[in-house]
Design brief:
Largest sheet: 2 strands, antiparallel
Number of domains: 1
Strand content: 5-15%
Shape: elongated
Strand order of the largest sheet: 1-2
Order of helices and strands: HHHHEHHHE
Helix content: 55-70%
Length: 151
């Protein structure tokens, strides 16, 4: 029974996950994260507003936002197999062979993979639209995939 919890049935494949479903999960996650990022950024500016230029303050705020998003996604995927948005949309992140994702693969996916997706002007994310396995660059790099938990 314990091994069943860590693997998916053979009928659950990456092809079950549609782009609109992934987009909806992403939107839910960012609606959850946005207020937290705004509150932390405002608090940061109030407490540590000593920068010589506004651009410096904005860049520090963006770095803080990036860290919050990475932490949110990493903790959710590592501990629960899904972020809140993915859970609501019935999605789960697993390894390519259907096992639970460990911390190393989660960090590779969320930090390195997503950074490279953004560095390619989001082409790495868009790859989910044309690749036969529906995996983005961040998933290919980390050896992970998104599957359906339920329909």
């Amino acid at each position: 029974m314990a091994s069943e919890a860590n693997t998916l049935s053979e009928t659950q494949t990456v092809r079950d996950v549609t782009a609109p479903r992934r987009l909806a999960a992403w939107l839910i996650d960012h609606f959850i994260i946005a207020p937290l990022v705004i509150m932390l950024t405002v608090a940061w500016f109030e407490l540590y507003s000593f920068a010589p230029t506004l651009w410096y303050e904005i860049s520090r705020g963006l770095m803080l936002a990036y860290v919050v998003v990475i932490l949110y996604m990493t903790i959710g995927i590592w501990l629960f197999g899904a972020s809140i948005g993915k859970e609501i949309m019935g999605l789960r992140v697993v390894t390519v062979d259907g096992k639970r994702v460990g911390l190393g693969k989660t960090l590779l996916r969320e930090v390195v993979g997503k950074f490279l997706c953004q560095a390619t002007l989001f082409v790495g994310f868009a790859a989910t639209l044309w690749r036969p396995d529906n995996r983005g660059l961040h998933e290919t790099i980390s050896g992970t995939k998104v599957t359906c938990r339920r329909d």
